[in-house]
Amino acid sequence: MAKDKIAYVCSNCGQESAKWIGKCPSCGQWNTFKEIRIAGDTGTQAARNAGMTMRHGGAATMFGGVRASDGAAQPMKLRDISAHDEPRIDMHDEELNRVLGGGMVQGSITLLGGEPGIGKSTLTLQTILNIPEKKVLYVSGEESAHQIKLRADRLASSITTVGTDVNLDHISILCETSLEKIFSHIQQVAPEIVVIDSIQTIATEDVDSSPGSVSQVRECAAALLRFAKTSGIPVILIGHINKEGTLAGPKILEHIVDTVIQFEGDQHYMYRILRSIKNRFGSTSELGIYEMQQGGLRQVSNPSELLLTEDHDGLSGVAISSAIGGAIAATYGASFLCYVTPAEHLRLPTVDDVKEGIIASKIAAHAADVAKGLPGAKDWDYEMSEARRNLDWEKQFDLAIDPEKARRYRAESKPEKEDTCTMCGKMCAVRNINKILRGEDVDIMD
């Protein structure tokens, strides 16, 4: 058996290093490298055994290609590989199917993330309740079987009220956190879909660390990936997110899985949004919208009922438009900006109106140049800051986007002393700091 080895992995981006370093060379974050112990055959044998058992038991893998008698993959010529679409499993949920790219691909591994209490487990359980034709193993490392049963009954009763009899015989519940025991039960149950709730609670015996650690999440996810690709059985992983709003655990977790979808929304409001962050089998530009109700999640097939008011009394019509700030648009690649005058749609603009519109666009364009890090973009700001530090008003007027207006405002409210601004007077922080640096006394009462 191969010896264990020690490695260091950045918890932010997944960068590996043979030794601990303070700053990650990939993402630039400090103190993010965590020590992990990599076993020579961590969880892979159990995953391989379970995958081979399920494959020989009738579950066809869509990723193995040609295999030898021992199960090892064999190379294929590119021209001999079929270009047909991967067969997908209909989840009987139009919103989820659209976000996944048309359904769940066999042998894929999907990561569902979201804040605590947002409805990840509810969405997953409601979905598998709606696919009675598929045998499902639901593995829970957080809740008891009784808790899951209560939620399932509540969701099933809401489904039954719309005329659909819900059969719970196709779902098996397993409350377990040991990866090896999970694979053993998979061989016994022979499911067609596996749900892990959540990946941060699962641990393998071959890694000497607590569940949820970087090494445990990494190795358990890798073993589940091997199982999914070997057996052709899709795996759904439910994951936590951290305080920054990103998926908890090593960044490599997102690289391992095929699809990353995130369930978002405010817990104090009823609507939820499902969006795809990564999808190897479809687009990441699709959204799914749900409404959280007492009996579960309701699909919002017409987003207009969420985004638009139905109260049109007294209105001659309704128009829909999309607007974005010029600075944001330019930052993300807009080649030019159109200015808007204060008199827009009110009267014909005057010369002063046009001037105001151009100045606003120039400010947005300059902010975008700074945000994009264009060479020399900050030179103007540095010069203005230097002039401000020196209380050089003439220099500030010359650098102003509208020098004429700046001079007029200063003249209209002239301060008592030239080395202060009108607003602060003797309390001017720049003036007083300059005096302190010169060794002079500061008396704001004189």
List the helices and strands and how they pair.
Elements: E1 5-10, E2 16-17, E3 33-38, H1 44-56, E4 88-89, H2 94-100, E5 104-105, E6 109-114, H3 120-129, E7 136-140, H4 145-160, E8 171-175, H5 179-189, E9 193-197, H6 214-231, E10 235-239, H7 252-256, E11 259-264, E12 271-279, E13 287-293, E14 296-299, H8 304-307, H9 326-331, H10 351-372, H11 379-389, H12 393-399, H13 403-412, H14 429-437
Please identify the structural class as seen in this structure.
alpha/beta
List SSEs in N-to-C order.
EEEHEHEEHEHEHEHEHEEEEHHHHHHH
Tell me the β content.
15-25%
For the biggest β-sheet, the strand order reads: 8-7-9-10-6-11-12-13-14
Radius of gyration: 30 Å
- Distance between the ends: 83 Å
* Overall pLDDT: 82
Shape descriptor: elongated
Q: Total helix count?
A: 14
Largest β sheet strand count, sense and barrel closure: 9 strands, mixed
Total strand segments: 14
Task: Please bin the fraction of helical residues.
Answer: 25-40%
In the predicted model, the low-confidence regions spanning at least 5 consecutive residues are 56-62
Written description of the protein model:
The chain has 14 helices and 14 strands. The chain is an alpha/beta fold. The protein is elongated and about 90 Å long. Mean pLDDT is 82; it is low at 56-62.
